[in-house]
tRNA-dihydrouridine synthase (Rhizobium meliloti), 342 residues
Amino acid sequence: MCLKDMHLPSTAFSPSLLIGNVEIRNRVALAPMSGVTDLPFRMLAWRFGAGFVVTEMVASRELVGNAAESWARLKNSGIDPHIVQLAGREAHWMAEAARIVEANGADIIDINMGCPAKKVTGGYSGSALMRDPDHALSLIEATVKAATVPVTLKMRLGWDENSINAPLIARRAEEAGVKAITIHGRTRMQFYNGKADWDAIGAVREVVSIPLIANGDVDSVADAHEILRRSGADAVMVGRSCQGRPWHAGVLAGAAAHPDASGVARIFAEHYEMMLEFYGVEVGLRTARKHAGWYLDRFAPELPASEKAAILTSTDKGFVRDSVVAAIVRSGGAAAREEIAA
Protein backbone atom coordinates (compact mmCIF):
# COMPACT_ATOMS: atom_id res chain seq x y z
CA MET A 1 0.00 0.00 0.00
CA CYS A 2 1.01 3.61 -0.29
CA LEU A 3 0.25 6.89 1.44
CA LYS A 4 -2.30 7.99 -1.14
CA ASP A 5 -4.55 5.10 -0.15
CA MET A 6 -5.23 6.76 3.19
CA HIS A 7 -6.99 9.62 1.40
CA LEU A 8 -9.31 7.54 -0.75
CA PRO A 9 -12.99 7.47 0.23
CA SER A 10 -14.20 4.31 1.93
CA THR A 11 -17.92 4.98 1.41
CA ALA A 12 -18.09 2.26 -1.24
CA PHE A 13 -17.44 -0.29 1.48
CA SER A 14 -19.48 1.04 4.39
CA PRO A 15 -23.07 0.35 3.30
CA SER A 16 -24.48 -2.95 4.45
CA LEU A 17 -25.32 -5.65 1.93
CA LEU A 18 -28.11 -8.21 1.89
CA ILE A 19 -27.36 -11.82 0.99
CA GLY A 20 -30.79 -13.34 0.87
CA ASN A 21 -32.31 -12.19 4.15
CA VAL A 22 -28.95 -11.89 5.95
CA GLU A 23 -27.46 -8.43 6.44
CA ILE A 24 -23.72 -8.02 5.94
CA ARG A 25 -22.28 -5.06 7.86
CA ASN A 26 -19.85 -3.80 5.19
CA ARG A 27 -18.50 -4.76 1.79
CA VAL A 28 -15.00 -6.06 2.48
CA ALA A 29 -14.91 -9.76 3.38
CA LEU A 30 -12.22 -12.18 4.48
CA ALA A 31 -11.81 -15.05 2.03
CA PRO A 32 -11.97 -18.65 3.23
CA MET A 33 -8.44 -20.06 3.13
CA SER A 34 -7.81 -23.66 4.08
CA GLY A 35 -5.19 -23.87 6.81
CA VAL A 36 -5.41 -20.12 7.47
CA THR A 37 -8.89 -18.87 8.37
CA ASP A 38 -9.47 -21.09 11.36
CA LEU A 39 -11.63 -19.90 14.24
CA PRO A 40 -8.90 -17.81 15.97
CA PHE A 41 -8.10 -15.99 12.72
CA ARG A 42 -11.76 -15.39 11.91
CA MET A 43 -12.48 -14.07 15.40
CA LEU A 44 -9.72 -11.49 15.06
CA ALA A 45 -10.74 -10.49 11.54
CA TRP A 46 -14.33 -10.09 12.69
CA ARG A 47 -13.30 -8.02 15.71
CA PHE A 48 -11.31 -5.67 13.49
CA GLY A 49 -14.27 -5.05 11.19
CA ALA A 50 -14.31 -7.49 8.28
CA GLY A 51 -17.74 -7.35 6.66
CA PHE A 52 -18.03 -11.10 6.91
CA VAL A 53 -15.76 -14.08 7.38
CA VAL A 54 -16.10 -17.64 6.08
CA THR A 55 -14.91 -20.90 7.59
CA GLU A 56 -12.22 -22.98 6.01
CA MET A 57 -13.83 -25.36 3.55
CA VAL A 58 -15.61 -28.22 5.28
CA ALA A 59 -15.56 -31.52 3.37
CA SER A 60 -19.18 -32.57 3.10
CA ARG A 61 -18.83 -36.35 3.15
CA GLU A 62 -16.30 -36.21 5.97
CA LEU A 63 -18.60 -33.98 8.01
CA VAL A 64 -21.48 -36.41 7.58
CA GLY A 65 -19.09 -39.15 8.64
CA ASN A 66 -18.24 -37.23 11.84
CA ALA A 67 -14.62 -36.49 10.95
CA ALA A 68 -13.13 -34.46 13.80
CA GLU A 69 -11.35 -31.98 11.52
CA SER A 70 -14.56 -31.14 9.68
CA TRP A 71 -16.41 -30.50 12.94
CA ALA A 72 -13.54 -28.31 14.19
CA ARG A 73 -13.77 -26.18 11.06
CA LEU A 74 -17.50 -25.74 11.63
CA LYS A 75 -17.08 -24.11 15.05
CA ASN A 76 -18.13 -20.54 15.67
CA SER A 77 -17.81 -18.13 18.58
CA GLY A 78 -19.88 -14.97 18.47
CA ILE A 79 -19.39 -14.21 14.77
CA ASP A 80 -22.61 -13.10 13.13
CA PRO A 81 -23.41 -14.16 10.48
CA HIS A 82 -21.86 -17.61 10.72
CA ILE A 83 -20.91 -18.59 7.16
CA VAL A 84 -19.79 -22.15 6.51
CA GLN A 85 -18.14 -23.20 3.27
CA LEU A 86 -18.87 -26.73 2.04
CA ALA A 87 -16.85 -28.71 -0.48
CA GLY A 88 -17.78 -31.95 -2.17
CA ARG A 89 -18.36 -33.80 -5.42
CA GLU A 90 -21.65 -35.64 -4.77
CA ALA A 91 -25.05 -34.02 -4.42
CA HIS A 92 -26.20 -36.43 -1.71
CA TRP A 93 -23.36 -35.58 0.66
CA MET A 94 -23.62 -31.84 -0.04
CA ALA A 95 -27.29 -31.92 0.86
CA GLU A 96 -26.71 -33.93 4.03
CA ALA A 97 -23.87 -31.64 5.08
CA ALA A 98 -26.00 -28.57 4.39
CA ARG A 99 -28.64 -29.85 6.80
CA ILE A 100 -25.99 -30.50 9.45
CA VAL A 101 -24.32 -27.09 9.23
CA GLU A 102 -27.66 -25.30 9.27
CA ALA A 103 -28.69 -27.29 12.33
CA ASN A 104 -25.42 -26.23 13.94
CA GLY A 105 -25.96 -22.52 13.48
CA ALA A 106 -24.92 -21.63 9.93
CA ASP A 107 -26.62 -18.45 8.71
CA ILE A 108 -25.25 -18.83 5.17
CA ILE A 109 -23.82 -21.87 3.35
CA ASP A 110 -21.13 -21.21 0.75
CA ILE A 111 -20.27 -23.79 -1.93
CA ASN A 112 -16.58 -24.17 -2.80
CA MET A 113 -16.01 -24.35 -6.55
CA GLY A 114 -12.83 -22.30 -6.50
CA CYS A 115 -10.12 -24.17 -4.63
CA PRO A 116 -7.27 -24.96 -7.06
CA ALA A 117 -5.32 -27.31 -4.77
CA LYS A 118 -4.43 -30.61 -6.42
CA LYS A 119 -5.61 -32.66 -3.46
CA VAL A 120 -9.03 -31.04 -3.85
CA THR A 121 -9.36 -30.97 -7.63
CA GLY A 122 -7.90 -34.48 -7.80
CA GLY A 123 -10.99 -35.59 -5.92
CA TYR A 124 -13.19 -33.76 -8.44
CA SER A 125 -14.12 -31.07 -5.93
CA GLY A 126 -13.34 -27.35 -5.75
CA SER A 127 -12.59 -25.75 -9.12
CA ALA A 128 -12.61 -29.17 -10.82
CA LEU A 129 -16.41 -28.92 -10.74
CA MET A 130 -16.19 -26.12 -13.31
CA ARG A 131 -15.13 -28.70 -15.89
CA ASP A 132 -18.65 -30.18 -15.78
CA PRO A 133 -21.26 -27.42 -15.31
CA ASP A 134 -24.19 -29.85 -15.35
CA HIS A 135 -22.72 -31.87 -12.51
CA ALA A 136 -21.79 -28.69 -10.65
CA LEU A 137 -25.39 -27.51 -10.94
CA SER A 138 -26.65 -30.79 -9.50
CA LEU A 139 -24.61 -30.07 -6.34
CA ILE A 140 -25.83 -26.50 -6.20
CA GLU A 141 -29.48 -27.51 -6.62
CA ALA A 142 -29.19 -30.21 -3.95
CA THR A 143 -27.63 -27.80 -1.47
CA VAL A 144 -30.20 -25.08 -2.09
CA LYS A 145 -33.04 -27.59 -1.75
CA ALA A 146 -31.66 -28.98 1.51
CA ALA A 147 -31.11 -25.60 3.19
CA THR A 148 -33.51 -22.94 4.39
CA VAL A 149 -30.69 -20.41 4.86
CA PRO A 150 -29.13 -18.56 1.90
CA VAL A 151 -26.68 -20.52 -0.24
CA THR A 152 -23.80 -18.73 -1.98
CA LEU A 153 -21.17 -19.86 -4.47
CA LYS A 154 -17.44 -19.15 -4.77
CA MET A 155 -15.63 -20.06 -7.97
CA ARG A 156 -12.94 -19.07 -10.46
CA LEU A 157 -13.27 -17.79 -14.02
CA GLY A 158 -13.04 -21.32 -15.36
CA TRP A 159 -10.77 -24.34 -15.44
CA ASP A 160 -8.35 -22.82 -17.96
CA GLU A 161 -8.20 -20.01 -20.50
CA ASN A 162 -10.04 -22.16 -23.05
CA SER A 163 -13.00 -22.77 -20.75
CA ILE A 164 -14.03 -19.46 -19.18
CA ASN A 165 -17.50 -20.54 -18.06
CA ALA A 166 -18.06 -18.56 -14.86
CA PRO A 167 -20.83 -16.44 -16.48
CA LEU A 168 -22.70 -19.57 -17.62
CA ILE A 169 -22.44 -21.27 -14.24
CA ALA A 170 -23.28 -18.07 -12.38
CA ARG A 171 -26.44 -17.50 -14.39
CA ARG A 172 -27.58 -21.08 -13.85
CA ALA A 173 -26.68 -20.89 -10.16
CA GLU A 174 -28.85 -17.80 -9.70
CA GLU A 175 -31.72 -19.59 -11.44
CA ALA A 176 -31.19 -22.49 -9.01
CA GLY A 177 -31.59 -20.18 -6.01
CA VAL A 178 -28.05 -19.11 -5.10
CA LYS A 179 -28.14 -15.72 -3.33
CA ALA A 180 -24.62 -14.36 -3.99
CA ILE A 181 -21.58 -15.28 -6.06
CA THR A 182 -17.88 -14.67 -5.44
CA ILE A 183 -15.46 -14.80 -8.38
CA HIS A 184 -11.69 -15.11 -8.08
CA GLY A 185 -10.30 -13.50 -11.20
CA ARG A 186 -8.10 -16.41 -12.25
CA THR A 187 -8.63 -19.81 -13.82
CA ARG A 188 -7.80 -22.94 -11.89
CA MET A 189 -4.75 -23.62 -14.07
CA GLN A 190 -3.31 -20.23 -13.12
CA PHE A 191 -3.38 -21.19 -9.44
CA TYR A 192 -2.08 -17.87 -7.98
CA ASN A 193 0.28 -17.00 -10.82
CA GLY A 194 0.06 -13.90 -12.93
CA LYS A 195 -2.41 -11.15 -12.17
CA ALA A 196 -6.08 -11.63 -11.40
CA ASP A 197 -8.28 -10.43 -14.27
CA TRP A 198 -10.64 -7.97 -12.64
CA ASP A 199 -12.26 -7.02 -15.95
CA ALA A 200 -13.22 -10.63 -16.66
CA ILE A 201 -15.28 -10.70 -13.45
CA GLY A 202 -17.47 -8.09 -15.13
CA ALA A 203 -18.82 -10.72 -17.53
CA VAL A 204 -20.51 -12.34 -14.53
CA ARG A 205 -21.98 -9.00 -13.48
CA GLU A 206 -23.68 -8.79 -16.86
CA VAL A 207 -25.65 -12.00 -16.35
CA VAL A 208 -26.62 -12.02 -12.65
CA SER A 209 -28.65 -9.66 -10.49
CA ILE A 210 -27.72 -11.15 -7.11
CA PRO A 211 -24.78 -9.68 -5.14
CA LEU A 212 -21.41 -10.24 -6.84
CA ILE A 213 -18.21 -10.31 -4.78
CA ALA A 214 -14.87 -9.79 -6.51
CA ASN A 215 -11.72 -11.55 -5.31
CA GLY A 216 -8.07 -11.75 -6.33
CA ASP A 217 -4.95 -9.64 -5.67
CA VAL A 218 -6.66 -7.00 -3.54
CA ASP A 219 -4.01 -5.60 -1.21
CA SER A 220 -4.81 -1.91 -0.79
CA VAL A 221 -7.72 0.50 -0.58
CA ALA A 222 -6.84 1.58 -4.12
CA ASP A 223 -7.03 -2.04 -5.27
CA ALA A 224 -10.40 -2.47 -3.61
CA HIS A 225 -11.85 0.57 -5.34
CA GLU A 226 -10.37 -0.47 -8.68
CA ILE A 227 -11.67 -4.03 -8.60
CA LEU A 228 -15.15 -2.72 -7.86
CA ARG A 229 -14.91 -0.23 -10.72
CA ARG A 230 -13.64 -2.71 -13.25
CA SER A 231 -15.80 -5.68 -12.28
CA GLY A 232 -19.04 -3.94 -11.35
CA ALA A 233 -19.11 -6.08 -8.21
CA ASP A 234 -21.01 -5.16 -5.06
CA ALA A 235 -18.30 -6.16 -2.59
CA VAL A 236 -14.67 -7.21 -2.29
CA MET A 237 -13.10 -10.33 -0.79
CA VAL A 238 -9.48 -10.34 0.38
CA GLY A 239 -7.39 -13.40 1.11
CA ARG A 240 -3.60 -13.73 1.00
CA SER A 241 -3.05 -10.04 1.78
CA CYS A 242 -4.52 -10.75 5.24
CA GLN A 243 -1.91 -13.37 6.12
CA GLY A 244 0.10 -11.97 9.01
CA ARG A 245 -2.38 -9.15 9.50
CA PRO A 246 -5.86 -10.41 10.42
CA TRP A 247 -7.02 -6.81 10.82
CA HIS A 248 -6.47 -6.01 7.13
CA ALA A 249 -9.99 -6.54 5.78
CA GLY A 250 -11.34 -4.24 8.48
CA VAL A 251 -8.77 -1.60 7.58
CA LEU A 252 -9.73 -1.71 3.90
CA ALA A 253 -13.38 -1.35 4.92
CA GLY A 254 -12.55 1.74 6.98
CA ALA A 255 -13.68 -0.04 10.14
CA ALA A 256 -10.24 -0.21 11.80
CA ALA A 257 -6.91 1.60 11.81
CA HIS A 258 -3.52 0.06 11.13
CA PRO A 259 -1.89 -0.91 14.44
CA ASP A 260 1.51 0.52 15.27
CA ALA A 261 4.45 -1.78 15.99
CA SER A 262 3.47 -2.37 19.61
CA GLY A 263 -0.11 -3.00 18.51
CA VAL A 264 1.05 -5.58 15.98
CA ALA A 265 3.07 -7.28 18.71
CA ARG A 266 0.06 -7.39 21.04
CA ILE A 267 -2.19 -8.77 18.32
CA PHE A 268 0.32 -11.48 17.47
CA ALA A 269 0.65 -12.48 21.13
CA GLU A 270 -3.11 -12.77 21.48
CA HIS A 271 -3.46 -14.60 18.16
CA TYR A 272 -0.76 -17.05 19.22
CA GLU A 273 -2.39 -17.79 22.56
CA MET A 274 -5.76 -18.24 20.85
CA MET A 275 -4.27 -20.88 18.56
CA LEU A 276 -2.69 -22.77 21.44
CA GLU A 277 -6.00 -22.77 23.30
CA PHE A 278 -8.00 -23.81 20.25
CA TYR A 279 -5.74 -26.64 19.08
CA GLY A 280 -3.90 -27.59 22.26
CA VAL A 281 -0.21 -26.82 22.73
CA GLU A 282 1.33 -29.52 20.55
CA VAL A 283 -0.86 -29.01 17.49
CA GLY A 284 -1.13 -25.28 18.18
CA LEU A 285 2.64 -24.84 18.02
CA ARG A 286 2.76 -26.46 14.59
CA THR A 287 -0.25 -24.55 13.34
CA ALA A 288 1.12 -21.23 14.60
CA ARG A 289 4.41 -21.54 12.69
CA LYS A 290 3.12 -20.29 9.37
CA HIS A 291 1.26 -17.43 11.04
CA ALA A 292 4.34 -16.42 13.04
CA GLY A 293 6.35 -16.56 9.83
CA TRP A 294 3.93 -14.20 8.09
CA TYR A 295 4.07 -11.71 10.96
CA LEU A 296 7.87 -11.81 10.89
CA ASP A 297 8.04 -11.45 7.11
CA ARG A 298 5.81 -8.38 7.21
CA PHE A 299 6.99 -6.67 10.38
CA ALA A 300 10.54 -7.86 11.03
CA PRO A 301 11.91 -8.63 7.54
CA GLU A 302 15.45 -7.84 8.59
CA LEU A 303 15.50 -10.71 11.12
CA PRO A 304 18.38 -13.06 10.20
CA ALA A 305 17.23 -16.31 8.63
CA SER A 306 18.94 -18.36 11.32
CA GLU A 307 17.04 -16.53 14.08
CA LYS A 308 13.77 -16.87 12.23
CA ALA A 309 14.33 -20.61 11.76
CA ALA A 310 15.15 -21.04 15.46
CA ILE A 311 11.91 -19.30 16.41
CA LEU A 312 9.69 -21.21 14.00
CA THR A 313 11.07 -24.64 14.88
CA SER A 314 11.09 -24.18 18.64
CA THR A 315 8.72 -26.22 20.80
CA ASP A 316 9.00 -23.75 23.67
CA LYS A 317 5.72 -21.83 23.44
CA GLY A 318 6.93 -18.94 25.58
CA PHE A 319 10.12 -18.57 23.58
CA VAL A 320 8.23 -18.46 20.29
CA ARG A 321 5.73 -15.87 21.51
CA ASP A 322 8.31 -13.64 23.20
CA SER A 323 10.78 -13.87 20.32
CA VAL A 324 8.26 -12.84 17.69
CA VAL A 325 7.01 -10.00 19.88
CA ALA A 326 10.56 -8.81 20.51
CA ALA A 327 11.44 -8.97 16.81
CA ILE A 328 8.41 -6.89 15.85
CA VAL A 329 9.04 -4.31 18.57
CA ARG A 330 12.76 -4.18 17.82
CA SER A 331 11.99 -3.61 14.16
CA GLY A 332 10.20 -0.57 15.57
CA GLY A 333 9.07 0.43 12.66
CA ALA A 334 11.03 0.06 9.53
CA ALA A 335 8.46 -2.51 8.44
CA ALA A 336 5.76 -1.56 10.91
CA ARG A 337 5.90 2.15 10.14
CA GLU A 338 5.86 1.43 6.42
CA GLU A 339 2.85 -0.83 6.90
CA ILE A 340 1.03 1.72 9.04
CA ALA A 341 1.72 4.54 6.59
CA ALA A 342 0.76 2.30 3.69
User: Anything to note?
Assistant: DSSP finds 15 helices and ten strands in the chain.
